[in-house]
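Translate sequence into structure tokens.
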Amino acid sequence: MAFASPEATLDDIRGAARRIEGSVLRTPLVRLGVDDAEIWLKLENLQPIGSFKLRGASNAMLSAPRAALAQGVWTASAGNMAQGVAWQARGMGIPCTVVAPDRAPDVKLAAIERLGARVMRLPFEEWFQILATRTHPGVAGLFIHPVSDAAVVAGNGTIGVEILEQLPDAAAIVVPWGGGGLSCGIATAVRALAPAVPVYACEVDVAAPLAASFAAGSPTRVPYQASFVDGMGAPFILEEMWPLARRLLAGSLVTSLEDVAAAIRLLVERNRVVAEGAGAAPVAAALVGRAGKGKVVCVVSGGNLDPRTLAAILEGRTP
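Result follows.
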């Protein structure tokens, strides 16, 4: 089944900013503690759920008609979107169900359950199909898509507005590519306000369908390997996201698991920031110069990293 491209406008993004004010933080933008590059960190890991996903989830739910929420809400998520939906559902007093892949980190599943959501687990391939079909037997309520929903994209786009207000002379922005809702939302705002500033997606080399799609000129399936970078990476991109990505993004910067692990260590050592793999991937790409020179902003999308994984990385290992 084909779905429409989740287009958002600058007006949609500004409306989302007003709607979610009070539910989300205006996160700080701080400089990475290195001398040989000017890299700035947009710290979305400081959101109440430890992830940017609270922005899109909150906007989608707060903009929905109350009648549509009568049976509650549900989402398909490896953890961060689930926490965003569950956090907002608890505040609104409505039930929430989360369908998660069986390889989702325990630290994220535990956080979802603490927020009062019911969790169902599925094999990864079966779970990933929900992102394309938006249905699953036996689950009721309003489905909040973690990626390709115009209200979610608009909520994510509020990050782009904040970045340009905090650093008007930014030279480039690097954003992790999970499904495209974050990078395309930010790029929508930046294209409207500062069209000369490129917005790059970032992927890891064990799962980089966007880079392959840019190279081929159309959505392309790639081999997929699960890794500790669980907040991004898939065997393919959602077809409805391709038109937005192709039009809005300057490309995809692909980095290695080893470089991501090194970036996580550097963030802890220099800035006392704990980032999950997806949140550190833009920093890894920027550190080796893939985003160019000047003031490069890296969106640290989340900080929900399993403690055992963090311990391994701090010991110098790549999980």
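Note: The chain is about 40% helix and 15% strand.
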